[in-house]
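Exercise 7. Predict the joint structure of the components listed below.
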Amino acid sequence: MEILVCVKRVPDSAENEIEMNAEGNDIERDDLVFSVNEWDNYAVEEAIQIVDNVGGTVTVVTVGDDESDEVLRREMAMGAAKGILLTDDAFEGSDCKGVATILKGCVDKGNYDLIFTGAQADEGAGAVGGMLAAMMDYPYASLVNKIEAGDGKLTIGREIEGGNQEMNEIDLPCVLSIQTGINEPRYVGIRGIRQVSGVEIPELGAADLGLDAAAVGEAGAKVKKVDYFVPESGDGAEMLEGSNDQIIEKLIEILKANGGLQ
Amino acid sequence: MEHLISPAHSMILGFIPGWLISFLYVVVGVGLFAYIIAKRLAPLVKAAPDNSRFANIPARLKNIAVVWLGQIKQPRYMFAGVLHMMIFFGFLTLALRTCSLVVIGMFPDFALPGLAADQPVGAVYNVLKDYAATIVFFACLVAAIRRGVFKPARYAVPKELGHDHTAEAVFVCCIIMGLMVTESLFEAVLVAAGHDAFLPPLTLAWAFAHLFAGAPHGLLQVLHIVSYYCHDTLFFFFLCFLPMGKHFHVITSLFNVAFMRVQRGNIKPMVYGITAEGLDDLKSFGVKKIEDFTWKHMLDFYTCADCGRCSDQCPANLVGRPLSPRFITIKARDLMFKNYPLRGEMKKSEPLIGSIFTAEEIWSCTTCGACEQECPLGIEYIDKIVDLRRGLVDEGEVPQTLQKPLKALGKRGNPWGKVEKKRADWAKDKEFAAECNVKIVENGDTSDTLYFVDSITSYDDRMINIARCTSKILDTVQEDFCILGKQEKDSGNEVVRFGEEMLFQQLKSENIDAINESGAKKVVTSDPHAYNALKNDYPELELPVEHISEVIVKKVKDGTLKLKSVEDPTKVYTYHDPCYLGRHNGLYEAPRNAMTAIPGLKLVEMEKNRDRALCCSGGGLNLFYEPEENERMAVLRVQMAHDAGANVIVCACPFCMVNMEDAIKVAGLDDQLEAIELTELIEQHMEK
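Solution:
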């Protein structure tokens, strides 16, 4: 099975202290450390496990700049065989639809049976996977947390509201957005990354992908970010007082009143 | 009275000369033994190299004298230890007698040079060996009863870990008793038959001689020959039986002790003799299959006597984690026996994790070193665990909870992913800075002494107080010092023990560069983990490294540091030895002396102290690991402090502090016990 996994380089929320920039329309990015989007990591691990079972290759692709090379190499150190970097000045400022258009250009150039994206990335829209599927006219499933490979189709599980599980059959080729928890991604150390440091990663621009530069990037973006702020904090916590038993009683009341206990 | 015919001159079954039988015994016995040993050596030939074992000969000779011959570790378990020493010294004494007995079967008048009965040394030896045989006999009898009837819990084998070893232990005790009886009987009947020889009173031989005094000559003759060949049979059987199991140590212990670890605190390199550049070219990291172990580590597996002391002291085993060091060894030995059989083809190696070991077992170790401290045979565990972890890391099999701190260490140089520029924030707090101005290398400051703070003491809201107290102490004793600030990275003590070698190499080289560039001539630490890493795992760092307790003791002695009387005389203090100060670096007294330098301070010791101190579970990134366990080590530890009558437990390590402060709450001892760090205690009592 040929699997393409779309990954993204994002600021690492665990290792950064996020602050707003002076203009107030973005976060301060100078002193940030970046890594691969957490959901993408699960997607790559899942792809590797499928290929280990049924054969095929895993390719990782990202839309980004020179620095995005590091996340491709990290995922290749995990076990992805190939990496593709989609980079062009014209891509800058793309909205979700723009990114999906660029990825479609890449999918068209390959022969993939299965395409993964993470369920969402740093911007939280979770839209690229669905858009890509629509553009390709492929079936799509989101928030996938279980995959069994079959002949010409997959059996997939989706996590739905209230912790319930849904099972579906989906025809190949298809696009799936992968939820965390689907597996336990393997560890990648410095050594693994060094071992793939010499592997060549092809870089493709708008022309290589046969894209109209006006359809992507800032020029093609129909969604623009206009503001970015940290919400004001609320009134703070309510401290329950009294003896342990009284506190427990009050807590149960509050939980019941708010639907936390039935 | 007519003398008995010796085995050599006798005719076995009436027509085979005894000397020929004796000769065949030697040929077959020695031949079989040589064959078995050659087979046992086969895996060692395929093992990873380790030339460090041939260096530092004086220390190795000392270990032979003290650990092997001196049996120094044995009395740590008094009853079993003394029994063992009786058998050990008895065996050493009887070795000469056994050699001559084998020859006597062919040449009846043979005696080793100087040891003939009519020579003074020989006469003394004959007395000694008769007592030795008697002592060994009774020691084995007691040992057999102890193992077979009383069955101490230490030797139990959990069902999932294979069969019980009691039968083998009792069987071997019986063989040894048989050897002693036949040896004594062989000699005793000579005397009973009128041979002129002195039998020391109250020995087995003396008792047999009395028993058979006046017995018919024919019976004595039969007993003489039968006891000889029984002894010969038992001896060669025993010799060839030794390499089949836990009694292999009778043969291997001398070598294992000679090659045991002589340096403390450090972790073995990925491969002995490898350079940093060479690491990149290695195909595989760590131990994945049995042949990836070094030959010494294989010798360890052979040498284990299954005494169970390691697991009895292991804190992971104590709290019910899935690790028992004893079975790390036993399972590996069983595998070596299976894969390298005495007869038939060698078997292909399977990955160790998933076959004989589990990943959880390997991650459960805190690297506290209690097992190695206890082993009477110099068997190592930490290096093996680290090698197995290196293999797991290389395969990407790292528990999810540990991946985050590792990634953060790689990106930010500390396991919490805090930003580098805030590493010295503890020193910049206005109130503290007014009291104590800490120089920071990143600001262009220099000084002869560098205080290496390390991650937890730099960033943890609670532990930064240790950094502040340490600074105040250094300031008070007029030690001009600076810190590295954002140039400091985690010391990597936990990282190397976690098996992430490349990350450790990166942290180490960044730290060494920063320390060297700072121009410091000495490093002081307050964190035992940093102390250990800088001292033992940074061979390229040429500066002396001191723990703050050593500085305190020195400065109290020379009068620079004056301490006032203990603030609250109702407080009873106890000291918890951190593994990386105590066991790994032998610093037991300095922290205690620092405490007792406070006039009026009452110090009591816990049941487990100094080299038997119980680990708090903070080592080897265990602060971030969620193991399966029934209870927490630190909870047991604070209960021990409480039982000792203490109401203050003094730690000299930030990791211990985290665990003890937590454990006091978990154990519900909030009102009865408090934890304080050594530098905090000293700072409270400083005359400023």
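Discussion. Residues 120-150 of chain B form the longest helix (31 residues).
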